[in-house]
Amino acid sequence: MIAGSILLPCINSFSQNVGIFDGHNDVGEILHPGNATYNASTGVYELSGSGTNIWFTRDDFHYLWKRMKGNFILQGRGQLLGKGIEQHRKFGWMVRTSLDSSAAMVAATIHGDGLTSLQYRKLPHTDIEETKFTISAPDVIQLERKGNQYIMSVAHFGEPFVTEQITDVDLKDDVYVGVFICSHNKDVLEKVSFDNVRIIVPAKENFVPYKDYIGSNIETMDVFTGKRQVLYTSPESLQAPNWTPDGKSLIYNSKGLMYRFNIQNHTPGLINTGLVKNNNNDHVISFDGKMLGLSGASVDGKYNSVVYTVPVNGGEPKQITPTGPSYLHGWSPDGKYLTFTGQRNNEFDIYKIPSNGGKEMRLTTSPGLDDGSEYSPDGKYIYFNSVRSGMMQLWRMKADGSQQEQLTNDDYNNWFAHVSPDGKWIVCLSFTKDIKPDDHPFYKHVYLRMLPAGGGTPKVIAYLYGGQGSINTPSWSPDSRKIAFVSNTDLQK
């Protein structure tokens, strides 16, 4: 110990809220008090902390925490700040039974030298055990609890997760969860920053799809930096935001109705859709921003989904497709045509129809589901997704349905090829291969991925708890810089 100094056991405690967290503490014997701050404009948390180590039977570190019960998913992207003193300085997510330095715990840990490990102490005052990863120095960190199972998933931003898990750590129901920093040297402070921090309560395992729903976050994200921002949170199911061409609003559906969300003042307002009050999450704004295309139950009750159009500020909708099911996905840049997925003769194919009504034209004929049709901004191509190769993959064709070509071919089920306004990029929703290719369910671990419009290797741009309703519809910002989407968490707990 340094002459004249005193090690402080857990007395540097702060109870004030920091962002989504309840408080922050130095845990263990600390010479230099740590701190935690949150920048609401950037969504960035910064922690400073000291501490000898997190190892053996005791831990010394700074902890930004929240009390939780039940199952949860902890997500964030972190990086150490500065060159640092110790190669074993460490940061990550941690779950603890208490703020005692010898408490039982599980930690998703990244070290200064790149070592990545799932560390855990099953009982208080016992040695930490460890499962090491082969990946080095990831920045995206996720830790999930399912009962006594803890699943650690990590990635270099842009790549899929690598996962390890333990199945027999009983920390009881009521725990502390949060992010931490340990300097691995009692005489120095180290710093770390976290962004895209999310604490998610997943849907109950026995939830009934399309009957039981959990809460929603409307988010935007810069597709080139990965920076995400939550604009609006609701305990209701909000789905499928469209970004208006003027950049001022997002249009989404909830409980059968349509809403316009003002991005500047963060307030939603109801859009009048007349007698059409059972809209689903397949809705599209015309390229000129004047009209809104809807998919919803027919007023006469014959079909669960037909296509309507209505002025973008509301009015009495006009029915476009005479039969159903018909699910709208695209509007041609010249405003003359709509594309939709139609079930006809027990097959789901892509059709187009004049936007004022008329004869529908079948564009795809392959057996199995073809869906998610969307025009390129120059009108030359229609992008879509199809199961014709076995997995759900992205395709495109000429606007007349000719020259159908596959754009992705990987181990993910890829849905909804949304083309950027500048025509350069596609963003899609990717499910893991354990999901049926023709299904896109609610409340799953999914990726948002981006690739060049002409095809190429997709890059992960968001690690998401969502799925159905997250990004069913075109959702790019007018400047081709951002997208809007919905993530989910149970806000009733």
Notes on the structure:
With 493 residues, the protein is mainly beta. It folds into 2 domains: 193 residues, Sandwich (Jelly Rolls), CATH 2.60.120.200; 275 residues, TolB, C-terminal domain (Neuraminidase). Helices cover 0% and strands 49% of the residues. The protein has an 8-stranded antiparallel beta sheet, with no helix packed on it. The chain is elongated, with a radius of gyration of 25 Å. The two termini are 45 Å apart. The N terminus is likely disordered.
Would you kindly provide a brief summary of this structure?
This protein is mostly beta strands.
Index terms:
disordered N terminus; elongated; mainly beta; 49% strand; Neuraminidase; single chain; 493 residues; Jelly Rolls; 0% helix; eight-stranded antiparallel beta sheet; seven-stranded antiparallel beta sheet
Our count of domains comes out at 2
How much is the average pLDDT? 96
The quaternary structure here is single chain
Main β-sheet, in a few words?
Answer: 8 strands, antiparallel
**Percent strand:** over 45%
* CATH structural architecture of the largest domain: 6 Propeller
Number of helices: 0
Structural class: mainly beta
Distance between the termini: 45 Å
CATH class of the largest domain: Mainly Beta
As a percent range, the share of helical residues equals under 10%
Low-confidence stretches: 1-11
Q: What is the CATH topology descriptor of the largest domain?
A: Neuraminidase
| Structural Rg | 25 Å
How many β-strand runs?
Answer: 42
- CATH superfamily label of the largest domain: TolB, C-terminal domain
